[in-house]
Structure formats: structure tokens, C-alpha cells
Design goal:
Strand content of chain A: 15-25%
Structural class of chain A: alpha+beta
CATH class of chain A: Mainly Beta
Number of domains of chain A: 1
Helix content of chain A: 10-25%
Strand order of the largest sheet of chain A: 2-10-7-12-5-4-3
Largest interface: A-B, 25 and 25 residues
Oligomer: homodimer
CATH topology of chain A: Jelly Rolls
CATH superfamily of chain A: q2cbj1_9rhob like domain
Order of helices and strands of chain A: EHEHEEHHHEEHEEEHHEEE
Radius of gyration of chain A: 18 Å
């Protein structure tokens, strides 16, 4: 671990003029004895692919309650302007609502769900906390792309997350199909860090959450990753979950179908991996995007 | 059949202020005794669904020759400005090349391929001619959506095609995946005609081939069609083919993957269904978009 006194940047990005692919310097599954719902096979699949998909991780009752709350929250948020509510790049449709683990009772309870948290601990090998939470809506007809990216690249450069010891859970709250813009991942890409070019502009997050421009990997690196692997769409029904490593390359296509795509999104970070000063940005992002407590 | 003297518009569109869904007034498979590669089961599936998918319709040698010619044609077309070459909405990537059955030897031969033409005759029940041809390139990383549409809506309003007695063949010249923006269809939608709102602006085709704005069905009608059916992605490997009815509702999502998606596209019209004056447009579109001979 680096400390505040001796900060070594193991994953420099947005500092050079040319993109570069670096090897990962951290474990994927951290050795531990935590008990939880994941089997040995689950953990080795996660280690190899960088993600794990589980159908019906939550019960039908739990899922229905979350869907109701999601609908209520979406209706309540229409027309409201506050930083936590992000709109689609074109138009006024709500794209994401951040900090739901802080602001909403039911989603806070979900972020503390014992089955969920113990699975996360099995992977990260320590106690964990919520680094970021949000609900994503990909509306029918006009949901836009999320360009390919590694979350860690942003959390490292803009939030000061030192090591790769964090993961995301995407909990499906509507049925995913191959054609309504589901999550796409490049299995194995979590073992490579694509250093991106360009400097981070001040307050980049204000526009990057609508459409990302900085911290976007170059087409050459993406092709390199896909050529060595493949693309998968771990798309499931409402109530399913995808756990994915903080550094796996992922993105999603647009959605012109009438089927909206909604999910709840929690990022857990290890308590051993506390945030420091951002590695390539003037100021850390606000707390509703990256918990710094 | 209507004639030049007594033109009755069975499928009015772009004339009313409200969208409307009309029933189809024409057969899908026209009764006939033509011999060809399609079985009775193929023909009833086409009748019910409005499309038919066949893997490996062309041999590997034929497919390889077409792929080579496609690459040559794409390279040759870069930077060339002529009406037949359509660019992506944003940027200078080639999106389509029209009239390849007229301008290119190999694609002309493909449009006259006996297996292909006899299959088309089995469906349309008459001799046929090429109404339109093109090659589509959906480049990797930045291929944009094709919004949902019925081809017939445009051919009727802008080209003066009187009846639904035409079909398209999409011949895959690269491997299609669920995630690189393949064709999506709504099975059964070919039995309904969605009359669109708004008037056609003059020379609409000059922009509509890049991004369609007029003749776009409304979200209510699309939801109505999908609720009564489903969405399918008849995506196959290079050398596969999709035959689809002129009035089936179809579209495609964007493509952020590195895999480009290319196909050859032929529209065949029955010789009994000759073009007339456009039903909702000032002037017919030029010959490279709609053969009028």
C-alpha cells in the first residue's frame, strides 16, 4: 500500500501523449477466509474473466419492491435539477441518479444486503464500503451509448483510488435483452491497464457523466484487448446481478427498442484502499460521486 | 392493381397530423408455382413472421470473393464525393454505397445469382427486378443507429411503389454478433402499415440516407407492435442471408465494438408492381436510389 507520505502512481494515465497498456500489479481475488454465497468455482471464474454473472440473485419479492421504488424515484426526479440527477446527452430524460445508498432508504438497505456484501468481501478480502452508488435508466427508444472504459481509470485519476481493490455490482431492475443496450465486457481485460491520453479538464465530471470524453481508451488498445479475448453480454432478467472488477473494460450500445433498461449500481471499495489525492486531476470529485469519508 | 389513370392510395402516409395503423391489403407470399431453394415451411415462416433467415446461403468461395470486392470498393470510395456514396451522420466514414448492381460487376452478378433470384420469385410470385441496391458498412466503434422504419413507407411515399410486393435481401459480408448493431425485426409487423405524420421536404433523400427524420414511425405505434410480438435479431455469419418483407418494421442499434458490420443489400420488386408518381412527395428520388425503368 502507498501512504499519504509516499505516493507512488502504479497506474499513470492522462499524463502521456501516447496511449500505453500496462500490466495489472494487484490481485483480482484477494486471499481470505470470508464466508459467503460464492463458490470456489465462482471465485476462479471471476479471477479469470474479471466478472461474474448470477441469475435470480435477489428474490422476486425483493426485486419487485426495488422496481416499485425505482419507478417512484424516476417519477419524482423528472424536471428536478440537482447534481445527483444526470440527464441524457440529448434531451431531458433522466440517465442516472447518484448517491441512492445515501439518500434513499430502500437502496441503502440494498447496499447493505448481507448476501451482497458477503459476496463482495469474498472477492476483495476485507471489509468494504460503498464508494459510489447510482441508479441507471436507459430509456427505451433513445438510450445512448456508454463508451468503453475502465472505471478504475477514472477513480484513480479523478478520485485518487490508489490500487485495484474495488468492484461494481450491477443489479438488473428490468429484463435485459441482447438488443436493449446491455452491459458488454471484454473478459480478461481487467489484467491490463490502458493508460489514456490527454489531461483532465477542471470539473470534468459535470459533463463526463452524460458523455465521457476524457479517460476514453483509444481504438488501438480496444482492438488489442478484443483480439486477445471476446465480447460478452452478461444480460439477465430483473433480479440478476453482475459483479465486475474495477478495471474490466466495459461499455454498452444504444437502445432504440421500446424496452427501457434500468439497474442499480453499487461500487464497493476495500477499507484497505482508501482514497488519496487524485492522481491526474486538480480536485477530487464531490462526495455524491465518490465517498471520501 | 392501380393504374396511372386510376391511382388509389391504399397506404396513405405523411398526410395526416396523427399517426395511424392500417391493415395490410396485399398478400405476403404470392401464390405461384416457381421452383427454388425455399421449402414450403420456409415460405409459411416468411408469411407469418415477415422474414426468413438462412445461414450459409452462399458458399465460402462466393463469400470470400464478395468480401474482397467489398474491401476494394470501400478503399476506393474513401474521400470520393458522389451521390451514390453516403457518409455517417458524424464524420467521414462511408456508411453506404448505392447502385452497386449497376456500377460493379461482381455485385451485379450477385444480384442475378440464380439461387437468390429464384428464392425471391418463390415469394413474390412473378418476375422481379432490382429496385435498389447498396452495400452498408457499419464501421467498428462509431456505427450509428438505423431508426425503426418500414421500407415500404418510404418507397410508397417517395418512390411511388403502389403495393406491398417487394422484399429486401441482406447478405452478411462480415460476421454478425448480437452486439455489433445487427438487424432487428419485429416479427408480424409486416401485416400492419404505420402511417407516419409530417410532410416530406423536397430532396429529403439527401439527408434521410444519413439519418432518417421523416417517415419515422411514432413511439406509440412501435410499442403497440412490439407488445403484440417481440424483437428478433436474425444475425448470422458472413455468407448468411435475411429475406425480409418490404413492410416489416426493422432498425438497428449503434456499434461501439471493434467489429465492423458489412452487408450487401438488394431490394427486388415485382414486375407487376411498377413505380408510379410518388404518393407523398414532389418528385421521385433519383435512379441510383430507386430504379424506375
Amino acid at each position: 500500500m502507498t501512504t499519504k507520505d509516499t505516493v507512488i502512481d502504479l497506474y499513470p494515465s492522462r499524463v502521456e501523449a501516447q496511449p500505453r497498456i500496462l500490466e495489472r500489479k494487484d490481485p483480482v481475488v484477494y486471499p481470505n477466509d470470508f464466508e459467503g454465497p460464492l463458490t470456489k468455482e465462482d471465485l476462479s471464474a471471476y479471477d479469470a474473466d474479471g466478472y461474474l454473472f448470477a441469475e435470480a440473485f435477489f428474490t422476486e419479492e425483493e426485486t419487485a419492491a426495488l422496481q416499485n421504488e425505482l419507478r417512484r424515484l424516476l417519477a419524482e426526479s423528472r424536471g428536478v435539477r440537482k447534481p445527483e440527477i444526470i440527464l441524457e446527452p440529448e434531451g431531458d430524460e433522466v440517465r442516472s441518479i447518484f448517491a441512492v445508498h445515501r439518500d434513499n432508504g430502500l437502496f441503502r438497505a440494498l447496499s447493505e444486503h448481507p448476501k451482497l456484501v458477503s459476496a463482495v468481501r469474498q472477492i476483495l478480502g476485507s471489509d468494504v464500503y460503498v464508494h459510489q452508488s447510482r441508479i441507471n435508466f436507459k430509456p427505451g427508444f433513445k438510450g445512448k451509448e456508454f463508451q468503453w472504459h475502465s472505471d478504475f481509470e477514472t477513480w484513480h485519476t479523478e478520485d485518487g483510488m490508489p490500487r485495484m481493490r474495488a468492484l461494481s455490482c450491477s443489479i438488473a431492475l428490468s429484463d435485459n435483452y441482447p438488443f436493449n443496450g446491455p452491459l458488454m465486457v471484454i473478459p480478461g481485460s481487467h489484467r491490463h491497464f490502458v493508460a489514456c491520453v490527454g489531461e483532465t479538464p477542471e470539473n470534468n465530471y459535470e459533463s463526463s457523466l452524460r458523455r465521457q470524453v476524457f479517460g476514453v481508451p483509444d481504438e488501438g488498445s480496444l482492438t488489442w484487448l478484443v483480439e486477445r479475448s471476446r465480447i460478452e453480454q452478461p444480460a439477465g432478467r430483473a433480479g440478476s446481478i453482475v459483479f465486475f472488477d474495477c478495471n474490466i473494460m466495459h461499455g454498452s450500445n444504444s437502445n432504440i427498442t421500446p424496452y427501457p433498461r434500468s439497474n442499480a449500481f453499487f461500487v464497493y471499495n476495500s477499507v484497505e484502499n482508501k482514497l488519496q489525492a487524485p492522481f491526474a486531476s486538480q480536485r477530487p470529485r464531490p462526495d455524491y460521486i465518490a465517498t471520501r469519508e
